[in-house]
Specification:
Helix content is about 25%, strand content about 25%. It is an alpha+beta fold. Among the domains are: about 200 residues, Aldehyde Oxidoreductase, domain 4 (2-Layer Sandwich); about 200 residues, Aldehyde Oxidoreductase, domain 3 (Alpha-Beta Complex); about 140 residues, 2-Layer Sandwich (Aldehyde Oxidoreductase, domain 4), CATH 3.30.365.
Length: about 775
């Protein structure tokens, strides 16, 4: 990895930022760092249980086929095989993950029974006392199929006569309140296009990519006493998984327990509820512990990828550079089943037309079913591919009228008080400041070396208002004066536990090291939607503030009785003491206050907090909605070098400005920025499941075949952090985890065009695509 430069700009939004904070806004060492670097951190698969059974799946070899029969008799004769489960064993076999937020209908079987709709679909589960026996048993299950025509292209799937993928919908698209797509209507787009001096229409395409976590998806379910079952899982969303599992099993919720913890990479894929229900059922039927863990090959071939998207953008532009109209037609390839795609499609519609004020906007976003592997949430869900298309389009528009790309974006950027296309006023805008802060100090790169520079500017919503978004927290003091925060959130490696401790400590007025985070157990933790959608810091942090304030109120009441003063006259000093305002010598330690509360006053220093963003229901005709209460912003300038003989692209530098609300732990923000930019670089130039898609049986099956950049492929990083605190953020914080991956992708695409004049409007931008573009340019060049 090359040089990293990080700068915090304090000259922006100075009046909005508090400077009296002691525990947030400063770097604190991660509480889990020693466990990670010594290998002592426990993951779900580190647990061992006597009598453990292993579960292996029989999967469909076809993209689309009718199941004629399933014969398990030979599998049951394999030594070590105990049982083979088929659809008839599942109490509620048809489900859909988002039924919890009223997405209907149920459209996906836990185990296929009448048809298979994608290659790799689960058909039967083999339980054995060893992995080898389970694998051998799966190979002995005989399934007779009748192949059916399949469809793999989103627009082909919508044509009359196309094979029907999912009978539960009766058509190859998801229906939004009677409409075939999620609509947004603002102004009159036809009038805007008619008034334009220039009209440009372009198409953009992405391919599916893998989440590629270091730790593959899996769980272990263990029978407990009292007919209860505990699932140790690497899910990103404990209650989401518990609730879906209970519905599928037709089980009382209290019979099931989810225990999470540290997850070895999630990126959205582990919000899916795939392994846990069938593992629960297997443990219930055998009364033995059951482990269901994807192999690396399964993770690569049957786990949900990021959806492929196709986006058409038609813009009307005035000669002075203002965008008058934007018409978007977007297709999300959901694959065979809904999973999270109906929500992601709505999120994509809400994101249009990007962070710009455009008077006339029309958006149609289609959630389409094909015989591809079902897609799901991935970092930047519903936004990443849209940002790629929008920002490459913005570069084309700027060049069309000969305007500087940065000035073009500043001219069209939304400002506070402007009206967004989804009919909500802009608040907390900071795009212009990001663009200015990312502006290169030097002039043009050396064009003799086929170097180019490109930029992109984006915004990103915090949380998921479109689905309802609650989080709860409990805070209580021990007799030692330390505080325990009980959550049901999962740390994906981003340092959530440390930042949550900082938020609690700041609110209580105690040192961060005096706060312990107890998380990821549904038996002890209050409800939480999960760790995804850039919601963790914002939603959970707000719940902790509420709980800590309540606990602090009790603490000050006890201290007031001990000091014989009014509680309103007291304050904490951040070092573990409580004293009278203006008289620091008249004080009592938090430790002694906790002792007095327990043993003298009979009080519990505790509090409970719940933070809820009510669900926003889009208006069907206009798309009026509140997709988020705050947005973070970013701008990236990429510099690349292109080898004109091979088409290879080398990213030399990425200079970015990120507006994050408030950097609660600056070091962790830096890590998120670098990690996100790394992922964006990978998405732009490397990652794809094609040409294997839709038939992924030939690869990739591991990291030798699935291309991703290593540390030696990374550019120089120069990053600027800007803080405009969010009014509803915990100490002003916004979600930063997903946004950081988005802006590098179009910035790199635009830099490639700047270097060699080749537009690649599909992801990834491979050397083959670049070289074909260069050769096409040379073929058109005059002799």
């Amino acid at each position: 990895m090359r040089q990293q430069v990080m700068e915090y700009r304090k000259d922006y939004f100075t009046d909005a930022r508090r400077e009296d904070l002691t525990e947030v806004g400063v770097t604190r060492r991660r509480s889990d760092v020693l466990g990670h670097v010594t290998g002592k951190t426990q993951y779900y698969a580190d647990r061992n249980f006597a009598g453990l059974l292993h579960l292996k799946m029989v999967r469909s070899p076809h993209h689309h086929a009718r199941i004629k029969s399933i014969d398990t008799s030979k599998a049951l004769k394999v030594p070590g095989v105990l049982r083979v489960l088929t659809a008839k064993d599942v109490p509620q076999n048809i489900y859909t993950i988002l039924c919890l937020i009223q997405v209907e209908p149920n459209d996906e079987p836990v185990l296929a029974f009448d048809k298979v709709r994608y290659r790799g679909e689960q058909v039967a589960a083999v339980l054995a006392d060893s992995e080898a026996a389970a694998r051998a048993g799966a190979g002995k299950v005989k399934v007779v199929y009748e192949e059916l025509p399949a469809v793999f292209d989103v627009e082909e799937a919508l044509k009359p006569g196309a094979p029907l993928v999912n009978e539960y919908h009766g058509r190859n698209y998801f229906t939004y309140e009677g409409h075939h797509c999620r609509r947004v209507r603002f102004g009159n787009v036809d009038e805007g296009l008619a008034a334009a001096d220039h009209v440009i229409e372009e198409m953009y395409q992405s391919s599916p990519i893998e989440h590629a976590p270091t730790e593959t998806t899996g769980c272990i379910v263990v029978p407990d006493q009292n007919d209860r079952y505990t699932c140790y899982s690497n899910t990103q969303a404990l209650y989401f998984t518990l609730d879906n599992s209970a519905l599928i099993l037709k089980s009382p919720f209290h019979k099931l327990r989810l225990v999470g913890g540290t997850v070895g990479g999630g990126f959205g894929g582990k919000v899916d509820v795939i392994t846990e229900p069938i593992a629960f059922l297997s443990a219930m039927l055998t009364k033995r512990p059951v482990k269901y863990e994807y192999t690396r090959e399964e993770e690569m071939q049957v786990s949900s990828p990021r959806a492929a998207e196709r986006i058409y953008i038609k813009d009307g532009l005035s000669r002075d550079g203002r965008i008058l109209a934007r018409k978007v037609r977007l297709y999300v390839d959901a694959g065979a089943y809904s999973r999270h795609s109906p929500y992601g499609t709505t999120k994509a519609a809400a994101h249009m037309p990007g962070p710009y004020t455009i008077p006339h906007v029309s958006v149609d976003c289609h959630c389409v079913y094909t015989n591809r592997t079902p897609s799901s949430a991935m970092r930047g869900f519903g936004v990443t591919i849209g940002d790629f298309a929008l920002e490459v389009q913005m570069d084309k528009l700027a060049r069309l009228i000969g305007m500087d790309p940065m000035e073009f974006r500043i001219l069209n950027a939304y400002r506070d008080g402007d009206m967004k296309a989804h009919h909500k006023q802009v608040e907390g805008a900071a795009l212009i400041e990001c663009v200015k802060a990312a502006r290169p100090k030097s002039g043009r790169p050396d064009m003799a070396k086929k170097r180019g520079r490109g930029m992109a500017a984006v915004n990103y919503p915090t949380g998921m208002n479109l689905g309802g978004d609650p989080s709860q927290a409990l805070v209580h003091a021990t007799t030692t004066g330390s505080f325990i925060v009980t959550l049901s959130s999962v740390d994906l490696g981003q340092g959530l536990k440390t930042v949550m401790a900082q938020i609690c400590a700041e609110t209580l007025g105690v040192p961060t090291e005096n706060v312990i985070i107890d998380t990821a157990d549904t038996d002890t933790g209050p409800h939480c939607m999960g760790t995804f959608a850039s919601r963790g810091t914002h939603r959970i942090g707000n719940a902790i503030i509420m709980a800590a304030k309540e606990a602090k109120s009790v603490m000050l009441e006890v201290a007031a009785e001990e000091l014989e003063v009014d509680s309103g006259d007291l304050q904490t000093d951040g070092a573990g003491n409580i004293h009278v305002k203006g008289s620091p010598q008249k004080s009592i330690s938090v430790f002694n206050t906790a002792l007095a509360a327990h043993f003298k006053h009979g009080k519990t220093i505790s509090g409970r907090g719940i933070f809820l963003q009510p669900r926003s229901y889009p208006e069907p005709e206009t798309g009026k909605m509140t997709p988020a209460t705050c947005y973070a912003h970013a701008c990236t300038v990429a510099e690349v070098e292109v080898d004109t003989e091979t088409g290879e692209v080398r990213v030399l530098s990425l200079k970015s400005a990120y507006e994050v609300g408030r950097a609660l732990n600056p070091r962790m923000v830096e890590q998120q920025i670098i990690g996100g930019a790394w992922m964006g670089l990978s998405h732009a130039l490397y990652e794809t499941t094609e040409p294997y898609y839709p038939d992924r049986s030939h690869g990739p099956v591991d990291f030798n075949q699935y291309l991703m950049p290593g540390p030696g492929d990374l550019p120089e990083f120069e990053n600027v952090v800007i803080e405009r605190p969010a009014a509803d953020g915990p100490y002003g914080a916004k979600g930063v985890g997903e946004m950081t991956a988005n802006s590098p992708i179009p910035a790199i695409a635009n830099a490639i065009f700047d270097a060699v004049g080749v537009r690649v409007d599909s992801l990834p931008i491979t050397p083959e695509k670049v070289l074909r573009g260069i050769q096409a340019l040379n073929a058109r060049a005059p002799y």
